[in-house]
Design goal:
- This is Cell division/GTP binding protein.
- Keywords: Cell cycle, Cell division.
- The protein starts with 9 loop residues before the first helix and ends with a helix.
- It is built from eight helices and nine strands.
- The strands form two sheets. It has a six-stranded mixed sheet with strand order 2-3-1-4-5-6. It has a three-stranded antiparallel sheet with strand order 7-8-9, covered by helices on one side.
- The protein is of the alpha/beta class.
- Strand 2 and strand 3 form a beta hairpin.
- 42% of the residues lie in helices and 18% in strands.
- Bound molecules: guanosine-5'-diphosphate and magnesium ion.
Length: 296
């Protein structure tokens, strides 16, 4: 073989550039007040801080979320820098009239698309645009064990038009394992019945491995999660958990809840695909609509 020119080293060049720049990953949480959104955000960050620094942060006092607010941490693993940005939102759906209660969240997501588009369109555009587009929306479902509320169906539908929506069953410690499984199946059936197309999406580009990965995620969604801002001691080790009169729920124990599955899904298996899907599907739809409107 005399024709080898060495362009395969391009993968290392790309890798080097990407590693230097790092990744930005933006998640938003949505759902009724009191379902543990703020708590889960802290749990996700705390579990990363445990990984990287080997210690837990001090517990936060109880608080109520009153405005849309982003919390951000940089996580470094094996030289790869990830800026994880989680946007907390006030609950909704607690009013007598819940009409348009999803508007602030949809607006927030569109505003990020709009800001990105503006930067893209300026003549002297930056070589690298700071990306605040939301890559994933965790939608919190009340653990009633019965069915979705009408408002959940409406809001998930609205959100799925602008962002990758991933539903989670909040406070899963309030359901038995059988109730949890039955509830999951019920929810999946209701999502299909209501024609709500949720992430992950299959594309022609997907190989067998990706198709299988997406299948396994679909069979798990909605993730049944438990969050905690307190650490409890189990076998001499400090972990995030909830202690009640009957025992302890270890948030990171896969036999207790699916927090670790959700975390792996977000920061390990689907990170790149969530980012790509946002750019190629959601942002692209927004962008072409805006540019068409400009022409008229
Ligand atoms: P938000 O309004 O959705 O942000 O909810 P918060 O995170 O403020 O939590 C509301 C209450 O639910 C707090 O008292 C939390 O301690 C509690 N909570 C949060 N997550 C869980 C959970 O997974 N299980 C249980 N049982 N309680 C939780
Ligand atoms: Mg909150």
């Amino acid at each position: 073989a005399t024709s080898y020119v060495g362009f395969d080293s391009i993968t290392q060049q790309i890798e080097h550039k990407l590693l230097k720049r790092g990744f930005q990953f933006n998640v938003i949480v949505a759902g009724q007040t009191g379902l543990g959104k703020s708590t889960l955000i802290n749990t996700i960050f705390a579990s990363h801080l445990i990984d990287s620094k080997g210690r837990l942060e001090a517990d936060d006092p109880v608080r109520q979320t009153t405005e849309i607010q982003a919390v951000s941490h940089v996580i470094v693993e094996n030289g790869v820098k990830l800026r994880l940005n989680i946007v907390d939102t006030p609950g909704y759906g607690d009013q007598v009239n819940n009409e348009n209660c999803w508007d602030p969240i949809v607006k927030y997501i569109k505003d990020q698309h709009s800001a990105y588009l503006r930067k893209e369109l300026t003549a002297m555009r930056d070589r690298y645009i700071q990306d605040t587009r939301i890559h994933c929306c965790l939608y919190f479902i009340n653990p009633t064990g019965h069915s979705l509320r009408a408002i959940d169906v409406i809001v998930m539908k609205k959100l799925s038009e602008v962002v990758n929506v991933v539903p989670v069953i909040a406070k899963a410690d309030s359901l038995t394992l059988e109730e949890r499984e039955a509830f999951k199946q019920k929810i999946r059936a209701e999502l299909v019945y209501n024609n709500i197309r949720l992430y992950p999406f299959d594309t022609d580009e997907n190989d067998d491995e990706e198709i299988q990965l997406n299948e396994s995620i679909r069979s798990m969604i909605p993730f049944a999660v438990v969050g905690s801002e307190r650490s409890v001691t189990i076998d001499g080790k400090s972990v995030r958990g909830r202690k009640n009169r009957w025992g302890v729920v270890n948030v990171e124990d896969e036999s207790h809840c699916e927090f670790m599955h959700l975390r792996n899904f977000l920061t390990r298996t689907h990170l790149q695909d969530l980012i790509e899907t946002t750019a190629q599907i959601h942002y692209e739809a927004f962008r072409s609509k805006q540019l068409l409107a400009l022409k008229e």
